[in-house]
Every structure is written in structure tokens, then in C-alpha cells.
Amino acid sequence: MLVGICIVIRSSCEILSIMYAYSHLIKTWTHMEKRSFRLLLHSEHSTLLPMIPGLTLPISHLHYYFVALLVGALLHELGHGLCAGLHNLRLCHSGFFFSYIYPGAFISIAESDLDMLGVWQKLQIICAGIWHNIVLFGICKMLNKVASRWIWCHLGWQMLSDGVSVVNIHASSPLAPHLKPGTRIIQLDDTPLLHGTDDWRSFWNRDFATTPTHGFCALMGATTFTDTSCCAFASDLPFGDSSDSTISCFQNASLGDTEVIQGECLNTLQTLAAYTTVRCRLDADCLGNSTCVIPVTPSMYGQRVRIYAENEGQELITSIYEGALRDVLDSVQVSNLHPKYPCLPKQLPHQFDLLTRQVLKCLFTLCYTYLTHNSYVATFSLTLALLNSVPAFNLDGASILKKLLFNTQKKLFTVITKIMSGLVLFVVIGSVFILLLQNL
User: Fold this and answer.
1) Which of 172, 264, 304, 388 has the least C-beta neighbours within 10 A?
2) Which residues, at least 6 apart from 76, have a Cβ–Cβ distance to it below 8 Å?
3) Residue 255 scores a pLDDT above 70
4) Is the pTM of the predicted complex or chain greater than 0.70?
């Protein structure tokens, strides 16, 4: 219960800090202030967020969500029922339901039988659902570690020492023609994927790519375009105002990440992805009349990333992604496991991973985003445990608090439950506000 209370209070404080930063931004609204606010908005925080299909929950994950939430809810109520049965209490009725699109479960225990028990026995029954969700969370975590490190490796898959394996890519993704299922991605820009999917998520889960420490030698006289419209950036022109999609804006590496753009248009592939490209820090590192340049990407929707990969024939592929970084997380699914044999389904370990380990998200109930890399089943089990432990509304936490106060401190019980109910409501409304800001 204390953990649930701390999470709600901390989330309330973080929502207030984001709202304060937003009110300050409205007054100034400078470019750097706006960029700093976006970095704050998308940074790791413990805000409790409502999960809405198509907005915070990928549509392609809906079936994982329904199964996980239903399993968590059924086991939660089963815990209450089993504990009630151990104390020889009568169960009036039980079942499961769908509220709009959200699955749930319920169980009803005879009040007359419950009133005959002592305080400790009542607390056991009330806390049984929370306990079963915590146990399920631990089982899923253990199962996933065993599956990834032992089971799949004995069924024909291998754990990659570095890089990630593409298991699925959305047909609408600009990377679809270049990255096929089974392709092994080994590096993003100058960042090798030494820790597999952890490095993959860390790289794409941000707004702006890191400014490269080494530039690219480009022969300005042979490749420069006289038209510099590709450097005419605006809020609705993340790639500049040029109609030629093969060119990008570059500026001298010595200028660094400056607000004033002094760029020129160069061929994107020839500059960034050619096999003969020489990396540099200064113009002196380049041969002849070449200049050391870096790409200019001031818009979060116009980032450029070099993707180094190997196809199943061990051929090295270099691709350039252009767009918002976070979009790749939704459109490209990767895994640390790679099939040893072509006949094995590439998606199977990843689908198991999604169901038992991958993402901590909960739909219109609340979730703690610090645990973002856990499973749907494990996530919803832990979420139900944390949420139900809060002394608010008609949650288990309110019943626990009432029994701990021995039904004597009614005023204190009313004050605590009203405060916590108000905080939970504030977090729900505030988190919706944050979601709207994130999608501006």
C-alpha cells in the first residue's frame, strides 16, 4: 500500500513540474526553450499514464493486451476466491466482463460470513488478489529469462552477441524495402548495438540524434548544389524546402550544433553511405579539396540515421532513415534471438517476448513507466497489485486501510481516501494532458 501511495504522490509532483515548465514555455516560446521542454516531456519519468489503443498502445499489440489484462484480472479475483475458500466462506457469484473494450473479472463473497472473521483473516482475503498478481509477475520474469537464455537456444535459435535481428517491419515503413525479416542490424550511426535490444530502444526512444563526433569528407566542388533550399527549415518543412529528395543540408563540422545554419546541399547517400567516404574531425583530415561536414537536422521530425546491417547472405547493407526517431520503435520489431535455420518462424520468440516480458503498459488503468521493459502479463499483474493497494475509490487499498484502522478512525479513513482519490483523479487528468502535449 505504501508503495502505491508513493507512486501516486511522485507522479502528481512530476505532472505539476511538467505543467509548470509548460506555463513558462508559453510565456517565452523560444526555439531552445521549446526543444528543452520536449526533452523534458519525453524523458524517463514515473508518471502514471493511461493506455489508449492507437495512442499509447500500438494497435498491433491489442491481442497481447487483452490476453494479459484478462489473465491478470482473473488471477487477481481467483486469489480472493481461493483465500475465501480456505476460510470456508461462501462465494455468491463470480465471472468476467467487458467494460467497453476493457476486459475484467469480479467475485462476490458473502458479507455475513466475512463479518464473522477476525481482522487478520479479513486482511488475508483482501490482500490475496494483490499477492497473486505479484507472484504472477515474478513467474513471468523468471520464465522469460529461462526462455531467452535456454529454451529458445535449444529449439533452434541463437542469442546474438551483438546487434539485433529484424523479426517484423510494417509495410508502410520507409525502411521496409531495405530491411527484411532476418536482417541483422549491427550499428546505428556511430553507435554499435553491443547490448542488443536495450541499445536499440535507447537509441530510438528520443527526439534528436546525437551530433556525430566525426564528420564526413565531401568534395564540395563536385557535389555541392547551387540551390540551398534544402537548408530552409521550418516547422512544416523538417527536411528543408527542396523538391529533390536525394539531397540534404550539411555544414562544416567545425561549426558544431549551432542555432544559425550555414549549410549547403549535398547528395545524401554519396556523403553518408558511400563505401569510399572518409570520416574526419577537421578539414585537415580530408584529402585534396574535400571538406569535413556533418548533417544538419534541427527538426525532431527530420532526423537522419545511418543503419548498418547484414542480410542473411552476410552482405553489408547501409541505409539512411529520414523521419522521427520514435516512429521506428513502432514500425520495426527486433529481437536478440536469430533463427539458426531458415525454416524456423522468425517472429515466434518475439511474440512470446511481447506477451511475457516486453512493455509495461496498462489501459485506462494506471501504470508505472519506470518498469517499461517488463511483459504485458507481468506488467498488468504488477499494475493491478500496485493500483489495488492504493487507498482510493473502491480499491482493495481502501479496505486494507479500513481494517488496519480497526473501523474506529472513520474520520481519518475518510480524509486519507478522499485525498488519495483526488490525487489519482489528478494523475489521470494530468497524464492525459501530457499525452496531448507529446503529440503536438
Assistant:
1) 172
2) 105, 129, 130, 132, 133, 381, 384, 388
3) yes
4) no
